[in-house]
Amino acid sequence: MAEGEIFGLVGPNGAGKTTTIECVEGLRRPSSGRVKLLGMDPRAERRVVAERIGVQLQESALPPRLRVEEALALFGSFYQRSVNIDDLLNLMALSEKRDSAFAKLSGGQKQRLFIALALVNGPEMVFFDELTTGLDPQARRSMWDVVRSIRDGGRTVVLTTHYMEEAEQLCDRVMIVDRGRIVALDTPEALISSLNVEKRIVFRLPEGQGVGSLAGLPAVSKIEQGDEHVVIYGYGDHFAGSVVNALEDTGVSFTDLRTEQPNLEDVFLALTGREMRD
Amino acid sequence: MTDGDLPGYLTVVHREGLVTLRALGSFVVVNLRLYVRDPIGAFFTLAFPVMLVLIFGAIFGNEPQDMFDGRGSMDISMPAYTALILGTVGLLGVAITTSGYREAGILRRFRMTPLRPLVYIAADVVANLIMTLAGMAGVVVVGWILFRVHFEGRAGSVLLAVILSATAMFAVGYLIAGLAPNARAAQVIGMVLLYPMLFLSGAGMPLEVMPDSVRSISEYLPLTYVVRLLRGLWFGEPWGSFVLETGVLVGVLVLCTAIAVRLFRWE
């Protein structure tokens, strides 16, 4: 993993993402092979490593009557350096909940508290295991902003997710794992373009109009004209632009135009022969 | 590693000196707060023993009795209820909290920090000890106000004996937590061990009122030795008279700690 990147471990449930991340954190002993983290063995030098990393676990809890601010102060006291608690509360939008007991928090608030705890020592590397599971779409997006700001502050973020959209939007590089094996490792863009899957442009045409002239464009590979929609298949970065330019040049009055791009789910399907969600 | 590397939105505090002591201090304070917030734990440690003083004090009073070498029923209840408190805290409180924290994944979260396991245990022991002493103080203050109970021993000796007895019982609690698969099982094991012991050791009611058969059973219960040691020191007998009692409690402490350390699991 490189410094200052968001590195994603991606795959369906049960693929081995959590096992991998727990071996890296030193929580679990690998059945074979060796793990190096910040140049150290995370099990042999557990405390030194723990000073410098931050971890949000997929399954953990706090004492039910422990309050938000107390939890941050308590965990902060375990480290040689810790960040200002008010800053953390503001960052995670928990200021109003500072005196609430852990048991009284909603799922999203608990998740935000665990993220705050992962940042309490100003870590060099942060691990998030299924960061946004159980959060609503809006909360998920604001979580993404937090993760990006951690990366922009020079930290390395390692996260696992089974949401392909999250990996695509958030990660600088992704490692796709399936049934305990690494099936791919690259940037989301490179993985998608390596698929060489056709992009699609879909739009409506007024009756009687045709799009025969588009067949001559180099980026276009196939045209399907149905009763309602026209679907144009093609490759390359300039595909969408060249099709739209050609349509406007010929004066065709298209409506409802949308482009459909292959995504990481298609990558997973192509590499494993299975859908992400079984 | 310089501050220049840190995210701009977070201010960092560097700590000089003893992080371990600071962690221990904050953890003890947090544990005490959690203890007081938990109605069941606080009741059995602080309120229930005082209720016993009020109820049995009202029934039996504190008149000197030959059976108790000229002391009153409430006089001998002071060390006995102290034994009851430290037995309850160890066998129920420590056992249930430790296994419950493990079951819920709380220990797992602590494990991801630089916190030393020994500091975690020490903070737990110190907080439970403070609560035990607070419960004992409540019993003695109420006993003195209402019944003018007598204390004839040396405070330092009694305090030392309470600490020895309490840590021995806490060690039994950690052992139960290590054996039990979950908090529910820990609670059952703790109750099965504690409740007969409260009746048969002299902690709940004096052994003087029990038949000989019960007294012979009591020889096998660790809490009996706590009651004997505390009662003896309370009324001014020297430590030298309690070599057996001290030996049994040190043995329980050492043996249970050794096994509990081997059985201890973070998850």
Structure write-up:
- The complex is a heterodimer of chains A (278) and B (267).
- Chain A has 278 residues and is an alpha/beta fold.
- Chain A is built from ten helices and eleven strands.
- Helices cover 34% and strands 21% of the residues of chain A.
- Chain A has a six-stranded mixed sheet with strand order 2-4-5-1-6-7, with helices on both faces.
- Chain B is mostly helical.
- In chain B, helix 6 runs antiparallel to helix 9.
- The radius of gyration of chain B is 21 Å and the shape is globular.
- At the A-B interface, helix 2, helix 3, strand 3, helix 4 and helix 6 of A face strand 1, helix 1 and helix 4 of B.
SSE topology:
The complex is a heterodimer of chains A (about 280) and B (about 270).
Chain A: E1 6-10, H1 17-25, H2 46-52, E2 53-56, H3 68-76, E3 81-83, H4 85-91, H5 107-118, E4 125-129, H6 137-152, E5 156-161, H7 164-170, E6 173-178, E7 181-186, H8 188-195, E8 199-204, E9 220-225, E10 229-234, H9 239-249, E11 255-260, H10 264-272
Helix pairs in contact in A: 8-10
Chain B: E1 12-14, H1 19-37, H2 39-60, H3 73-104, H4 106-111, H5 117-147, H6 155-179, H7 183-200, H8 212-218, H9 222-234, H10 243-263
